[in-house]
Design a protein that fits this description.
Elements: E1 53-56, H1 72-89, H2 92-105, H3 121-124, H4 135-153, E2 164-167, E3 170-171, E4 179-182, E5 192-194, H5 203-206, E6 213-214, H6 216-230, E7 236-239, H7 248-256, H8 258-267, H9 269-292, E8 335-338, H10 348-363, E9 368-371, H11 381-387, E10 391-394, H12 402-409
Parallel strand pairs: 2-7, 8-9, 9-10
Antiparallel strand pairs: 1-4, 3-6, 4-5
Helix pairs in contact: 1-4, 7-8, 8-9, 9-10
């Protein structure tokens, strides 16, 4: 519901529907066959708070860990797994599928492309048995075994590389604001965000612009270990920032609370806009520094099969920009992505005012853009495309009206 130019009455902000999650049966491991693999995913422990308020640390990069030597036993395990993954990456099917993604991203008509992004490791992770002893080695082992496990069980269109990528480690101070959440005993239960913002805070005082630094020691340490693992199996290349996720409203709601935010959008829109402005400024400064410091890496398929949000792989011949010098990657050489999942039931006008107005600023610097995730966007396609003219990919939830969404997208996306 749009707010008129001279309107003073309260506007209604509809609340998102509660979604249910069906249980999934555990998959059993199978003998490995040559099919299609899936990306290495590092499993994180599930923390429970038994219905209590559980403050979560403000998002920030952890300090570097003490160097951990790679034992002969761990090295042998990792190299054996790496050989299996290298065999997959060298299959002809990888080039065939890469070409299909390339054609799809040119808006050519190809068969439906399927990409499984596994978010169920908290259910199926117990099928992976780790044998390494060192903490860092176990993390690497889990990623390799996860890829091979998905190769055994999924036949999607993920493209596997025959190159191993070692991260350029950056340090970011984060936002400096903690999240206070009430979580149930059940790991699938809904989370309630308790307001840490009371409604009178000045965002410029609370959020300091970030200063990005590179941890050269940690970057080199990981690179040397990766070379030991993959020596003679596949080349190792360093890779910087290649993936974006601009979702400042989704984060703001975790600080302010869902009900409070929706009421603020009606009663105190100027205060919400002040926060959106400052948060957008923070992210823009972060990416300005990445670009100035030469920390960006291509996400068009040249530096691995990097996804564009949840909408598929970014393999394309329409990036980088024509004036790319072959060395210094800029945002105009990359895909960018943004989403506001929490606005699934908010009107198009309010979605535009409180989210797209800021998301468009971020995405305007990128060569191509993706938008959306798990929210239904079938009634907002024209609005999104108008705000984001470089939009190429649009992701919607399974609850959309497919016919309406497809008609709105036409041949534009």
């Amino acid at each position: 519901m749009a707010r008129g130019k001279k309107a003073t009455k309260r506007r209604k902000a509809t609340r998102p529907r509660r979604k249910s999650h069906a249980g999934r049966a555990k998959a059993s491991p199978k003998k490995r066959v040559v099919r299609q693999a899936a990306p290495a995913v590092k499993r994180l422990p599930v923390k429970k708070a038994a219905g209590k308020r559980a403050p979560v640390a403000a998002p920030a990069q952890p300090p570097p860990k003490k160097d951990e030597p790679l034992s002969a036993k761990d090295l042998g395990i990792l190299r054996a797994l790496a050989r299996s993954l290298a065999d997959i990456g060298n299959l002809p099917v990888q080039k065939e599928r890469a070409e299909l993604w390339r054609r799809l991203n040119r808006l050519e008509r190809v068969r439906p492309m399927i990409l499984l992004q596994n978010g169920t490791w908290h259910e199926t992770g117990d099928v992976i048995k780790l044998k390494c002893e060192g903490e860092w080695a176990r993390g690497q082992e889990w990623g390799l075994r996860a890829s091979l496990y998905q190769w055994d069980t999924v036949a999607d269109d993920l493209v596997y590389d025959n190159v191993a990528y070692s991260p350029i480690v950056t340090r970011n101070p984060g936002w400096g604001i903690a999240v206070d959440a009430t979580r149930p005993d059940h790991q699938f239960g809904a989370c309630h965000y308790n307001a840490v913002l009371k409604g009178d805070e000045d965002p410029e005082e609370m959020i300091k612009l970030p200063t990005i630094t590179v941890d050269e020691t940690e970057t080199d340490r990981i690179y040397q270990k990766m070379n030991r693992i993959y020596d003679g199996i596949m080349p190792v290349r360093k890779r910087g920032v290649a993936w974006s996720w601009f979702a400042v409203m989704d984060l703001f709601i975790q600080w302010r609370g869902l009900d409070n935010t929706f009421l603020d959008m009606v009663d105190r829109p100027e205060w919400v806009h002040a926060w959106m402005n400052r948060m957008t400024e923070w992210v823009m400064e972060e990416w300005d520094q990445y670009e100035r410091m030469g920390l960006l890496s291509l996400n068009n398929g040249s530096c691995g099969s990097v996804g564009v949000g949840p909408g598929g792989l970014g393999i394309t011949d329409q990036l980088p920009a024509r004036d790319f010098d072959g060395t210094h990657v800029r945002r105009c050489d990359l895909w960018g992505h943004a989403t506001t999942q929490i606005f699934s039931e908010v009107s198009p006008a309010m979605h535009d005012e409180f989210s797209l107005a800021y998301e468009s600023k971020f995405l305007s610097r990128f060569g191509l853009a993706g938008y959306g995730c798990c929210e239904p966007l079938h009634l907002k396609v024209d609005l999104i495309h108008k705000r984001i003219p470089n939009l190429r990919r649009l992701s919607m939830s399974p609850w959309v009206n497919v016919a309406v969404g497809a008609a709105a997208m036409g041949n534009k996306l």
